[in-house]
């Protein structure tokens, strides 16, 4: 193999090992063994497990973010954008389940730092601007758009994790239910929400 071909092979093998075992349990020995190379070859290309992991994660982030960004582009209405963004995340989970497992295993959606959390934060920022426009048109306070963007993105991400492990529903069904809850929930928003009960 040429140097670039060997590097790509190691990235593919490393991706499988990280998806199977997670970063902590993965070893250079296993990656080298599965690639049928010696350990020094892995160190030569990536400097160690951390370097290989960084390349794998960066590629997954770019793949996921690229799909969602493309879904949010265009002049479609807010509901269509919500549907397209939801399907983009579910498409990624469906076609790149190994990559998704890598991103969420070491960085679950509830964390504020880490690879997956940073992707979700970026997506929420993009959704926030779309919601602010929609809120203005509906006479709602656009300042609350960031809260709703976080809720929407978190809901889709957590549901996507659940779906990956169970697969009891078709992707389009999951997307339809997510959009139904999000859209109809947004359609019925109170202008000034308050809690029905208060703490004492």
UniProtKB/TrEMBL annotation:
Secretion signal, residue range per the UniProt entry: none
Cited Pfam families: TetR_C_46, TetR_N
Molecular-function GO term, any one: transcription cis-regulatory region binding
InterPro entries according to UniProt: DesT_TetR_C, DNA-bd_HTH_TetR-type_CS, Homeodomain-like_sf, HTH-type_TetR-like_transc_reg, HTH_TetR, Tet_transcr_reg_TetR-rel_C_sf
Annotated GO biological process: negative regulation of DNA-templated transcription
Domain called HTH tetR-type: residue spans: 4-64
Keywords, comma-separated and alphabetical: DNA-binding, Transcription, Transcription regulation
DNA-binding region(s) from the entry: 27-46
Domain of life (superkingdom): Bacteria
Protein name from the UniProt record: Transcriptional regulator, TetR family
């Amino acid at each position: 193999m040429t140097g670039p071909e060997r590097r790509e092979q190691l990235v593919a093998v490393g991706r499988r090992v990280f998806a199977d075992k997670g970063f902590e349990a993965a070893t250079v020995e296993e990656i080298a063994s599965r690639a049928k190379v010696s350990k020094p070859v892995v160190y030569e290309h990536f400097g160690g497990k951390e370097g290989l992991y960084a390349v794998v994660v960066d590629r997954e982030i770019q793949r996921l973010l690229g799909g969602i960004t493309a879904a949010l582009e265009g002049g479609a209405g807010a509901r269509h954008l919500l549907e397209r963004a939801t399907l983009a995340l579910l498409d990624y989970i469906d076609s790149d389940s190994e990559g998704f497992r890598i991103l969420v295993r070491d960085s679950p959606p509830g964390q504020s730092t880490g690879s997956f959390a940073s992707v979700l934060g970026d997506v929420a920022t993009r959704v926030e601007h779309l919601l602010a426009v929609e809120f203005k048109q509906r006479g709602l306070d656009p300042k609350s758009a960031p809260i709703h963007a976080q809720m929407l993105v978190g809901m889709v991400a957590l549901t996507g994790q659940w779906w990956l492990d169970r697969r009891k529903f078709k992707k389009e069904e999951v997307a339809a239910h997510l959009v139904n809850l999000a859209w109809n929930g947004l359609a019925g928003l109170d202008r000034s929400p308050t809690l029905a009960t208060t703490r004492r």
